Amino acid sequence: MTGKIIIISAPSGTGKSTIISALLDKGEIDMQFSISATNRPPRGEEQHGINYYFLSDEEFKSSIEDDAFVEFEEVYPGRFYGTLKSEISRITGEGHNVILDIDVKGGVNVKRMYGKQAISIFIQPPSLESLRARLTGRGTDAPEAIEQRLAKAEYELSFASDFDCVVVNDNLDHAIAEVDARIKNFVG
Ligand code: 5GP
Q1: pLDDT tens for residues 163-178?
Q2: Ligand 1 in contact with 75 (CB < 6 A)?
Q3: How many domains would you assign to the chain?
Q4: pTM of model > 0.90
């Protein structure tokens, strides 16, 4: 049996990665994380082949030429991220479901490609103000960078209605429970 595709997208700072990690840690759903390729450098404890396949600009370009991607996006200027065909086919081919942490445009594209084999879940911040507070509190971005991320978030929020379902992250535990329930219902 071929596995299903679970797409999780959200504006930056909405808690999408935290939700995905929590569900993978619980281990109740048969799903594996699709490791994307990117040309951005690793941050902190990130490791090649675990968080991402970290590629040079040239390697990313030749992967595009080799038609290695299901989709790819320039998520930030000069920073490319792509879902590898080899990841999706390896995981789903073994009969496991695959979970994707991808940007909003990528999420819409993958859903369009896979139709009923995929569920697309949009994680929404309760408001732009709460997102501003979260990004400011994180302390990792300069004020201009925060304004840029917020402008981008506002644009990304306009895609929410293109997703199969929207989960508002106003309380992390509730959001995790809701995403968990949606996925379990989908994979059966
Ligand atoms: P970060 O640099 O914070 O790890 O990720 C930045 C953004 O890129 C996040 O929104 C993340 O979901 C998105 N992203 C990660 N992998 C992919 C991918 O394969 N395709 C697309 N379109 N976006 C991705």
Answers
A1: 999 999 999 999 999 9
A2: yes
A3: 1
A4: yes
